[in-house]
Amino acid sequence: MENNFNFNKYTNYLSEIEKNSQKKLLNSNGGKICWRSWGKGTPLILLHGGYGSWKHWIKQAIPFSKNFNVLIPDMPGFGESDDLALPHTPEKIASNLAETLYELISTNDNPLVCGFSFGGLIAGHLSYELIKRKLSPRKLILVGPGGLGAKRGEMKTMIPRHSKMTEQEVYNAHKTNLEILMFHNPKKIDDFAVHMQKQNTDAHRIKSRPISATDTLAQILKKQDIPLYVIWGEKDASVGIYLEDRMTILRSINPKVRFHVEFNIGHWIMYENEVLFKKILDNIIQD
């Protein structure tokens, strides 16, 4: 059976979630940044991963909006936000995000900052930028972050897409790539995940992996004293056998860092098991 990416069902589902949000295109030095927000209360800033968009947090926006002001950008160079001038640096991305946040939160809000994968290393830089701007975060929460200078997990080669592929081949490539990197349980890879993966990868313009391969997060964390929490799926393919290395690096920077490793789950933990992830994040926020 041919798989068609124009799934009305999933387009409608995205629209249902998005219609409850306030969508704003805010000017920064680098151009417009697209922010979506849901709910009221303490700001909870959620940053997506590489080759991603706000949709990486699709299953968390509404649940967390019951108690928080959930703020999710398309980071510069992704989704509906403008590109930044080259070179792309985490400092530049974080500075532009921080600049636009003045229009979304007040100086006494003390937001929670949470980032996933590439967004984790940007979250570290954003936290630093906010501290400099007197918008000090109350906690920094990283989910499977890059940028620690540790070895990357060994995994199969991702399948590139090209114009000569049939739609079925493109679908299969995205599904396989999700299985290689993002999920541990292939049964959790539904058509909606594939649909969003195609949308996200079609819209990205930043090569995030070379930045994630540096130790930029480790270096920026040395410059700030903030309550730090890190979440990993035990089967995170980007980490592989090098989880202890990451823990050692983080402990050397912040001896008070708190870790949560969830058994038998992969990189995109907040999609693979959204109910479990919400409990984990709720517990960290309440800690």
Distance between the termini: 48 Å
What's the CATH architecture name?
Answer: 3-Layer(aba) Sandwich
Helix content percent band: 25-40%
Global Rg: 18 Å
Q: Could you say which overall geometry the principal axes of the C-alpha atoms support?
A: globular
Structural class of the helices, strands and pairings?
A: alpha/beta
CATH topological fold name: Rossmann fold
Q: Give average pLDDT, whole number.
A: 94
Low-confidence stretches: none
Counting structural domains, the number is 1
Model description:
The structure is a single chain. With 287 residues, the chain is α/β, with parallel strands linked by helices. 38% of the residues lie in helices and 17% in strands. The chain has a single domain, classed as Rossmann fold. The protein has an eight-stranded mixed β-sheet with strand order 1-2-4-3-5-6-7-8, sandwiched between helices.
Structural features:
287 residues, alpha/beta, Rossmann fold, 8-stranded mixed sheet, 8 strands, 38% helix, 17% strand
Summarize the structure in short.
Helices cover about 40% and strands about 15% of the residues. The chain is of the alpha/beta class.
